[in-house]
Task: structure prediction
Amino acid sequence: MIPAHRATRAAVGWLPAEQLGQWPVDARLRPWLIAKGLLTVRLRAACGGRFELRLCDQRSGPLSVEHRHYLPSGDDTGLFREVQMCCGGRVWVFAQTVMPDSTLDAHPWLAELGDAALGETLADLSDVRRSSYEYAWLPAGGPLAARALQDVAPRPEGLWARRSRFWVRAAPLMIQELFLPAMGVS
Result:
């Protein structure tokens, strides 16, 4: 059974940053969620030589209604890239990038990133913009959280996540970052 404060939180959609303070977030996790700058850079600093970025999956597939609304490209399909960001062998962050087909047509190199960090790669380019973050509590049984938690035991009730849009020379893509229970524990 889900505790009352969690049941309400489980129904939350994506929230703008100014509303995140209305929800109970673990004090250890909050700074990671709200910090500005590149998450990969912060993780490298926190983990030192124990940081690792692993490509888990990369596949083409249909964009959901939510994807098409958030990434107004007119495309029905795109590329889904999923990575794990680890510290000392433990997964701290699971990230999914969604790139509509038109973005890949404009920037085919995005499909060739392999184990390279997308944020760090984009930081080196000109004419790249990023939206503000949005936040959500994703129930463990939802499709994205379930992918992030497939090797985690015991499984938590859900995960805090943040997402943002990038425009690479006007071509949109989305990054969703899910913060796992091992976050900050090495």
